[in-house]
Amino acid sequence: MELKVALPFVGMVMAECAQVGLIVVSKAAMSKGMSSFIFVCYSNALASLILLPSSLLLHRSQRPPLTFSIICGFFLLGLFGCLAQFFGYAGINLSSPTLGTAMLNLVPGFTFMLAVALRMEKVDWRTSRTLAKAMGTIVSIGGAFILTYYRGPPVLMTLSSLNASPQRFMQLSNWVIGGSLLAVDCVMASAWIIIQALILKKYPAELIVVFFYCFFVTILSAIVCVVVERDPFAWSLKPNIRLAAVLYSGVFGSAFQVGITTWCLRQTGPVFVSMFKPLGIVIAAVAGVIFLGDTLYLGSWSNCDSHRVLFGDVGKSQRMGDGCGCCSEEL
Question: 255: which DSSP letter?
């Protein structure tokens, strides 16, 4: 019993570390001139190659039949996922890994709102659990807007940040634009979760769903790259940080991180998974300062602390509730 409780905890810590690593390496690759569109295309192509044999092997005995409606659902999942990645990487490129990770706290709130609107989530305002989720939605959205428009005084600055003071106004403008793009990314990601929940009801083969998702993202992003990126040298994986970022994203960002998160989601429920997002902010803040020379601002740290208290309350309300469910029933 203790092992059953501990495994999802360890899994989510590993998943958050993998996701933060993805954000950091993608920022490093794009700072070296790599196009975010090409990065999405390469990463999902590699993930598709990894997931195809593993998904067929894992689901060789129980493989639901593919119908036209299921294929259309996979395409819709890939479309929203592709848009989420485009907006997300563009926002990270203009801001920082810390902001990119912090804005992910919007996803549980937006998902809760969409689930209520689509009547996938039962709302009973007399229970503390529903009140905690509603309050969590308000605080998470408010905290994200504060983090976007108020950075606060610098808490920790590197030498490169001190030397870049004349560019501070341009950085602030990019920070706001990047935060707005990341907010759109969170809306797309929330819609992606809802679509995935509906698909899993009809096609309960998780790895095959993830494979088709990555496959359609690869096709869609390749079409965008052909239209937008006319320079053939843009596809180059040199310097080596580009190749390293693509390899990391394909292996750990898609195959490993998404797989672990999906397993934890089925074992514990989405609220438990959402509780670990503040941990990602701390990891991203430290990694951004150490590896990318980012400045740590008071707004980022205070937002992290507010989400820590918030999701602790939500997690407590879930433990007091009637247990966990799948993503189509409990958020």
Answer: I
Classified as helix, coil or strand, 155 is: strand
Amino acid at 197: A
Residue type, 116: V
Per-residue pLDDT of the chain (331 residues; tens, 9 = 90+): 566 778 888 888 888 888 888 888 888 888 888 999 999 999 999 999 999 998 888 877 778 888 999 999 999 999 999 999 999 999 888 887 777 777 777 777 787 778 778 776 676 777 776 677 677 667 766 766 665 555 555 555 544 444 444 444 446 677 788 888 988 998 898 888 888 878 888 888 888 888 999 999 999 999 999 999 888 888 988 878 899 999 999 998 877 887 787 777 667 765 566 667 667 666 766 666 666 565 555 555 445 444 443 444 444 434 433 333 333 333 3
**Among 21, 44, 27, 18, residue whose Cα is nearest residue 222:** 44
Q: If residue 37 lies in a helix (H) or strand (E), which one and from where to where?
A: helix 36-58
Q: Is the pTM of this model over 0.85?
A: no
Q: Helix/strand/coil (H, E, C) string of 48-92? A: HHHHHHHHHHHCCCCCCCCCHHHHHHHHHHHHHHHHHHHHHHHHH
Dist. CA 250–CA 214, nearest whole Å: 10
Question: Helices H, strands E: what count in the chain?
Answer: 14, 2
Write the CA distances from 328 to 96, 108, 116, 148, 306, integer angstroms.
32, 13, 11, 31, 27
